[in-house]
Structure formats: structure tokens, C-alpha cells
Known about the structure:
elongated; 6 helices; 211 residues; alpha+beta; four-stranded antiparallel β-sheet; five-stranded antiparallel β-sheet
Amino acid sequence: MYIPPYHAETDVSTVLSLIETQPLGAWVTVGAEGLIANHIPFILDRGRGEFGTLRAHVSRANPVWQQLSREVDSLVMFQGPHAYITPSWYPTRLTEGKVVPTWNYVVAHAHGRARAIEDPHWIAQLLFDLTEHSEAQQAMPWKLADAPQDFIQRLARAVVGIEIPISKLQGKWKLSQDEAMADRLGTVEGLAALGDVNSVALAHLVRQQIK
């Protein structure tokens, strides 16, 4: 990923936090016939490895787990808030006119060698952890124990675990850092005025970058 220095997020904890709050990853790996892409939720174990370890599962019917490369790393991309940035928010459009549209976004890229896991105990723990993490914000959290155990066990046999120790971690926070200060402030105001959750979250991130 191309990352200009002013867009690089080098704080590991900040990048890992994006993965934890936006767990649906775009996972790309190399298979027998070329690149394979899957979109699946991951859970991050920060305590394992230099940058943590990603865990997930795929359907046993999905051939990706049988085609994992032992020589080439996988890449998992996590997308945070993003939005189109209109030049109409830039005060300098009236004084200089040298403005163009852009797109602001935050992303995390996790690289690592993926492996498939069929151990039923590992899969059971993954399903428990993934459910606990995903249900944590619900008013009435659903638990695996709420469903018949023979039903859960049957579904668990239909999936295969995926584990990716992160060997390389990249963060790109493209948040108007290269724009004039007046235009950066205009971007914050413009995004906040849109009012939707995504735009407000992005406005907050842009504001954090303003020193």
C-alpha cells in the first residue's frame, strides 16, 4: 500500500483498535488459480505475536482453506470511516481556487501466513470468543449456550478455522493532513454537518489530526 509519510499511522495500538472495532476483513490470499478474496469477520488476539494474531472461520465448502499458500503471505484489509470530501467545504476555493475533490479514509492492512485449523476444540473456542466480542454491545447479548448444543456442534463441523499471525502491520489515516489548515477545519465542519454516524466519526478523526 502506498503511504505518504503524512498519512502513515505508526501507533500499533491505534491500528489494532481499528481492526477490533471494524472486524469485517477483506482477506486476500493466493490459491491454485491465482488470488482469492473473502470477506469475513476476524477476532484479534493482541497477546500472540509482535502485532497480534487474527482468527476467523470459513465454510468447509469454501475451497480457500485447502489452497492456502505456504510460501506467500495473506493480506487482510480493514476499512474504517470514509467519505467523499467536496471542495465546497474549502475556504481557499474563494481566495485561491486551487482545490479539487478527494476521499478521506482510514485503513489497516495486516499481512501474515495463514493456516487452516480443523481442531474442534479450537473452533469451539473461536466461535465462543467471536460471539462474545460481537454481542458485547447488545442490550440482551445472545450466547452460544442459548441454542441447542447439538445444533451448534453440527454447524461447527461445517466450518474450518483460519489463523493468521500478523507479521506486518500498516495503517493509513488519510485525513486531509496535506491540506491548508482552513480547509481542514472546513472539512471537519462539512462532515459534522452531514450528521450520519460515518461522517461524524470521520470528522472526529480529522479533528484529532489537527495540532
